[in-house]
Specification:
binds flavin-adenine dinucleotide, Butyryl-CoA Dehydrogenase, subunit A, domain 3, binds 3-thiaglutaryl-CoA, Butyryl-CoA Dehydrogenase, subunit A, domain 2, four-stranded antiparallel beta sheet, Butyryl-Coa Dehydrogenase, subunit A, domain 1
Length: about 400
């Protein structure tokens, strides 16, 4: 890949809405991405290999549990700092941001919010430092958008639980040391269990042949009569609301992350269009190309405003599930549109790994599907404004 020359667009001077701490966090993350992600990511994506070696660096930059209190190893930052980190990391690659979303919001968050004090002390510092990598098992082969139907289950055997079932499409699974797994008890109530690598009957086969998120490892979590100690059940919340609460936090991070991918595509296309000469002029001088760039920066700016406001509401504890859905849906669709237009602006070069655009575009095809599909989020908005669930 060519040298990373990224210049962040800020058309409405939104930096003025950020604190000094926000800007410091963003610059530190941006510098780290330029140094550690940009130079290697194309090669890892082409090879469809997870860059395991950057996990330590992600931990050092504070990307694992940015908003988890420092006493548990987190960075103790606010939600806007968390969002800005996800933006900068996804500017590098959605797959690397995926690793952070899963570790922070889908593994550390449930242990912090629903776990016992012993569980917090045992797992959170190791997850924050990258000593442990986590995964989150909600989706099953027959239950994706409708997780309430899950069949993975556990039985109370007196001194332990016996876990059976399988989870599919699980980010980080082939490399995870621990998994937060959602399963039904004998009464059909959903609970979270912490499953550790090495427990007999627990396996994590990798899913191959993905054309998207190629630098992120995806796989299954398979439970064949796994004996889970009783201490590994998350005691403080049960029901579908428990995993959905984690998704609120991860979807919020994705809303910011998608802006990062869009900014990278826009910035690349803007620079290319000023340098590429056709018909004796830079292609940036043609009205059709200017239209594409003008629409991209308009949509990026609208997403930045929406997401900053969501961050303020989240800091105040007032962001609703439906507001988060709207931002996730809008921003990922926006980023996909920007990526597709930017790809065209680069002509044939747009399909090569010399530029990041095609990789972002392919990654975003997963991002628009995971953490609730584009249509599911539309229906969450529909449910919120009408009071009628389209799912029942
Ligand atoms: P519904 O009846 O609406 O709700 C069931 C119970 O949950 C409560 N609830 C919430 N609680 C906390 N936070 C939220 N966000 C909540 N949303 C709902 C709700 O009040 C109810 O409580 P109670 O006490 O009445 O029982 O549930 P439903 O079965 O009708 O489903 C609703 C629907 C379709 C919106 C939901 O299931 C959904 O969001 N589906 C999409 C599934 C999804 O997003 N899966 C993501 C898997 S993880 C992933 O993709 C990780 S990718 C990570 C990466 O690599 O970055
Ligand atoms: P389905 O639910 O079968 O949906 C198929 C289509 O039907 C979609 O277009 C959907 O919008 C539509 N549809 C479904 N129901 C309705 C309805 N009621 N009305 C209208 N349309 C509907 N899951 C995890 O638990 N942990 C992870 O770490 C994780 N990581 C992932 C990583 C990747 C790369 C991918 C691709 C997925 C990951 N997922 C993970 C799973 C992801 O959350 C699911 O793929 C997603 O929720 C959709 O489920 P599904 O693929 O089964 O699609």
């Amino acid at each position: 890949m060519a040298t990373d020359q990224f210049q962040s667009p800020d058309y409405y001077l939104l930096d003025e809405l950020l604190t000094e701490e926000h800007k410091l966090v963003r610059e530190a993350t941006r510098d780290w991405v330029k140094k550690e992600v940009s130079p290697i990511i194309e090669e890892y994506a082409q090879k469809a290999t997870f860059p395991r070696h950057i996990v330590k660096g992600l931990a050092e930059v504070g990307a694992f549990g940015p908003y988890i209190p420092q006493e548990y190893g987190g960075a103790g930052l606010d939600q806007i700092s968390y969002g800005l980190m996800m933006q900068e990391i996804e500017r590098g690659d959605s797959g690397v941001r995926s690793t952070c979303s899963v570790q922070s919001s889908l593994v550390m968050y449930p242990i912090f919010a629903y776990g016992s004090e012993e569980q917090r002390k045992k797992y959170l510092p190791k997850l924050a430092s990258g000593e442990m990598l986590g995964s989150f098992g909600l989706t099953e082969p027959d239950f994706g958008s409708n997780p309430s139907g899950m069949v993975t289950n556990f039985k109370d055997m007196g001194d332990h639980y016996l876990l059976n079932g399988a989870k599919l499409w699980i980010s980080n699974s082939p490399y995870c040391d621990v998994a937060v797994v959602w399963a039904k008890n004998e009464e059909g109530r959903i609970h979270g269990l912490i499953v550790e690598r090495g427990m007999e009957g627990f396996s994590t086969p990798e899913t191959h042949n993905k054309w998207s998120l190629r630098a992120s490892a995806t796989g299954e979590l398979v439970f064949d009569n796994v004996k889970v100690p009783k201490d590994n059940l998350l005691p403080n919340k049960s029901g579908l609301g428990a995993p959905l609460g984690c998704l609120d936090s991860a979807r919020y991070g994705i809303a910011w992350g998608a802006i990062g991918a869009a900014m990278d595509c826009y910035d690349t296309a803007l620079r290319y269009s000023k340098e590429r000469i056709q018909f004796g002029k830079p292609i940036a001088s043609f009205q059709l190309q200017q239209k594409k760039l003008a629409e991209m920066i308009t949509e990026i700016t609208k997403a930045q405003l929406l997401t900053w406001r969501l961050g303020v509401l989240k800091n105040e504890g007032r962001a609703t599930t439906a507001q988060i859905s709207m931002a996730k849906r809008n921003n990922v669709a926006m980023a996909l549109d920007v990526a597709r237009e930017a790809r065209q602006m680069l002509g044939g070069m747009g399909i090569t790994g010399e530029y990041p655009i095609m990789r972002h575009m392919m990654n975003l095809e997963s991002v628009v599907t995971y953490e609730g599909t584009h249509d599911i989020h539309l229906l969450i908005t529909g449910m919120d404004i009408t009071g009628i669930s389209a799912f029942k």
